Structure to design on (206 residues):
């Protein structure tokens, strides 16, 4: 029995579509795995989305500020420390968001693109969250523990070092490291904090 010409053409078209569909699946990772996430990609801790690169960069920047700033005696109590922490953090946030905006527009994005504006707002919020974490540490030290400003600053440095250690541990865990290698990843974050403490010893030995 001869197959009609129209039916033969439809069968050929379906075969082509099937071959193309299978071909698109060849380059996918096996066993349902996913390709490595790009550096700086956000992830969630519970319901809260975070960008590790912003948190780590801002934390180290604030630690360096707390170490090198030499006008603590001229500040009026805890409020002065709050201004020293919040001011530079806002400056970092504005500079980072503006730089991202300019870079995306130069590479062809529209200034009113909703996805771009949402990402910029997310990044700005991340900086504010880091400042909020630093201020929470300051509140615990100065208001709850009744520590003087100098001890509150040291307490904030210790808290920042603990957070860097935690980020190292999170990175190691999500990277699949366990045991000794997971501890080594956490200790790498601790080492970064100790390096900043080393700058304090060099700059202010007394």
């Amino acid at each position: 029995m001869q197959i009609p010409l129209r039916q033969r053409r439809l069968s050929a078209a379906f075969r082509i579509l099937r071959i193309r569909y299978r071909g698109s699946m060849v380059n996918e990772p096996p066993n349902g795995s996913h390709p490595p996430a790009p550096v700086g990609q956000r992830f969630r801790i519970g319901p809260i989305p975070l960008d590790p690169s912003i948190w780590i960069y801002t934390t180290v920047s604030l630690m360096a500020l707390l170490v090198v700033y030499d006008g603590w005696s001229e500040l009026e109590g805890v409020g002065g420390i709050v201004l020293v922490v919040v001011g530079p953090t806002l400056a970092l946030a504005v500079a980072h968001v503006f730089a991202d905006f300019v870079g995306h527009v130069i590479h062809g994005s529209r200034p009113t693109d909703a996805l771009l504006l949402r990402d910029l707002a997310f990044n700005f919020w991340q900086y504010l969250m880091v400042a909020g974490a630093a201020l929470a540490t300051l509140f615990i030290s100065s208001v709850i523990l009744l520590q003087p400003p100098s001890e509150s600053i040291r307490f904030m440095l210790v808290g920042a070092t603990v957070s860097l250690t935690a980020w190292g541990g999170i990175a190691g865990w999500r990277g699949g490291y366990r045991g000794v290698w997971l501890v080594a990843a956490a200790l790498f974050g601790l080492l970064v904090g100790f390096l900043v403490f080393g700058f304090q010893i060099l700059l202010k030995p007394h």
Q: What stands out?
A: The first helix runs from residue 5 to 26. Confidence is low (pLDDT under 50) at residues 16-40.
